[in-house]
Amino acid sequence: MQPDISVILPFYNAAHTLNNAIRSIANQTYDNFECILINNNSTDGSKDIAKAWEKNDSRFRLVEESKQGVVFASNKGSALACGRYIARMDADDWAYPERLELQSQFLDQHPSYEAVVGLARYENQTGNRTGFQNYVDWVNSLKTYKEIKAGRFIDSPIVNPTAMWRRITGEIFGLYRDGDFPEDYEMWLRWLSQGVKIAKINRFVIKWMDSENRLTRTHPIYSDEAFYRVKTFYLSKWLKNNNPHHPFISVWGASKISRKRAALLEKYGIKINFYIDTKRTRQLEKKVLYYKDIPTAGEVFILVYVRQWHAKEDIKQFLNEKSYIEGKNYLMIS
Predict the structure, then answer these.
(1) Which residues contact 188 (CB under 8 A, 6 or more apart)?
(2) What pLDDT is attached to residue 155?
(3) Most buried among 89, 266, 306, 324, using CB within 10 Å?
């Protein structure tokens, strides 16, 4: 029988987590699926684990990808997929039993949506509270397609291994690209920029395991600098089409790091009119406005380059009270 869902599970030296990840897929309440296990040059026994599953459960298939990197391994799996739907899974995570059933059911019932994601329960294995917890709290707070779109320039609005999409969507809009950027964030930015509708079910679909060895902690393509490079590219395209004052913007955030990140836009012809700061006394080579003295809504377009989570909410509330409309008069960027 042709599988409805193809689960794409790439792995590299994941012997300590892979068996648990695979078992969580094997125990799904929805069983008309195939799980493609892509070995990406493992040397630690991971392949033996995958081979054992392939031998004992016909729903699992082991393939090899010699070109190193999650982009190549994931795309190899997608190219071999038979299902109508593609579900991503990482080798160090755990899927809730109803994940495949709930997400495929949503896509069956909502043909206008090309992809669906879910909530991630953060499992910290580093021993310390980290910014990842704040990130997961934030991304879980994005409940609708509108909120996902509005949040996409703050950070990646989707936890990648929570995603399921129609196979045809990947064929039309392309999958992961290799480059000096986080491959999943780039794909979501690209899809959203082309009008791909992404929904979220309000259910936990994975436990997202965070460890010191996770690629998002260790690989340079997941650094802050890499995130800002790729978000700036897509932000510049959005501003060209949506900023009524293009190419001029104003930047809320006059710190050195905020100015550095906003300056990346200049490469794309965006011009900064002035900075906005909460201190009256800050002096820079460019004009700085005290935040209470900002122009009337509609006279400027503001990009908020402030990273602190609590400060972002305060700024958003202040701008809304001043009749600024998110997406029309301002965007949250950091």
Answers:
(1) 152, 156, 157, 158, 198
(2) 95
(3) 89
